[in-house]
Design goal:
Blueprint: H1 2-21, H2 24-34, E1 40-44, H3 52-59, E2 65-71, E3 76-81, H4 84-96, E4 100-101, E5 104-105, E6 107-110, H5 123-136, H6 144-152, E7 156-162, H7 170-177, E8 183-191, E9 194-201, H8 204-214, E10 218-220, E11 223-230, E12 245-247, H9 266-272, H10 290-298, E13 312-316, H11 325-332, E14 340-343, E15 351-354, H12 358-368, E16 372-373, E17 376-377, E18 379-382, E19 401-403, E20 429-433, H13 441-450, E21 455-460, E22 467-471, H14 474-484, E23 496-499
Antiparallel strand pairs: 1-3, 1-6, 2-3, 4-5, 7-9, 7-11, 8-9, 8-12, 10-11, 13-15, 13-18, 14-15, 14-19, 16-17, 20-22, 20-23, 21-22
Length: 504
Amino acid sequence: MDGISDVAVGVKRGSDELNGASNGSDSKKLRVEEAPPSRVLHIRKLPNEASETEVIALGLPFGKVTNILTLKGKNQAFLEMGTEEAAITMVNYYTTVTPHVRNAPVFIQYSNHKELKTDAGNQRTQAVLQAVSAVQSGGSPSSDVQEALAAASSPVLRIIIDNMFYPVTLDVLQQIFSKFGTVMKIITFTKNNQFQALLQFSDPVNAQQAKLALDGQNIYNSCCTLRIDFSKLVNLNVKYNNDKSRDYTRPELPAGDGQPSLDPTVAAAFSKDSNSLLGKIPGALNPLSAAAAAAAAAGRVALAGQAGSSGVLLVSNLNEEMVTPQSLFTLFGVYGDVQRVKILYNKKDSALIQMSDANQAQLAMSHLNGQKMYGKIIRVTLSKHQTVALPRDGLDDQGLTKDYANSPLHRFKKPGSKNFQNIFPPSATLHLSNIPQDVTEDDLRLLFSNAGGTVKAFKFFQDRKMALIQMSTVEEAIQALIDLHNYNMGGNQHLRVSFSKSTI
């Protein structure tokens, strides 16, 4: 019974502390000063559904958690840390960065208790705490609770970027996250058609701080929203230093896979940009104008006055037997409005493509470099040319140069067009729209198999004007898009094809 009366005392004292702390902000300040440092912390304003695991996760990065008492009805909890030092570090940290549980801000202060005496028979609390000590002493966690606790003390964050209308590079991530501590390794990849990254700090506390400050923030004005979780991994294994992955502790790693090693002067370009979120106080991701966003995202583009501030791309390793200006116009047109295309007369496996601005060029480069077109892996880089020249009057260049400035097929002519929100990396699943009412699934399956691929799956949207079609490989889907975007389905209705983020 002793234990139970102790819990009751804890509840009583908790409500005293709450009352003392709620009479305006002055008394709250007094209350924090009044209660001397203690290893027991009083946490207020917890969301109703907050679990013990989540409360413990607040304390984990700062040291061992030895006890917890939650007062469900009052949205409060008491958390006992292993040492007073750990509690002091935690309170000091959370006075500069507001702690959140389930996206709601919570308040932490020292409690008048010096220790928590809870009912040892409270098996659930004991199980949770055992899980913590297992994790902290390197045991093997087995239950969900243990996994959650292990995750909260990982130095590795998993980052997903929503609404990625501008490219986000590995360097941009490094610049933003290094405000919170030493970034050791980053791996970027595309999964479920979304740009994702794993980023490892030298210390779990830094990962916790970065997650608290940055989760839900936009990198650029109203786009590129960061979604951040702890990874189950505690260490990343990076094999190559290039624009997809980087180990900052091992600069000697090879670039691998024919990727260019990155120019160390890139970082300098960022720090000069006073308008970007780099160089601001932690957590303040300042909105960028579209132009600044493009420059910052382009990394190498942003280098003062150097080549590449134009919207011209150099594409190489093309299949010269198959490629035409029209096929390049269609594929690159997924990521911007192509103005001109020139296949080089003396080097027909290379072409220059002029987009309508540098941001579109960067977007096309980040999505198409390394993809397969007509059986060859194409390389896309920024060109030093500012524009693509047309042949002089009367000069026949065998149709290798085409001007598309007035093309009716540009996807991004209208400012704020919905197409800006539907820019995705090449994927095996294609989104079809503008389908005539009398066209059946069989018609479309036949059309897309004739483009030289295998149709794996098909799904009409409810109104039947749109559908998803899944090819067996990304290369087949790229081919189908090139061949069938703007295909005349009869009655002057032209099929629209783009890459989808969905799978069927």
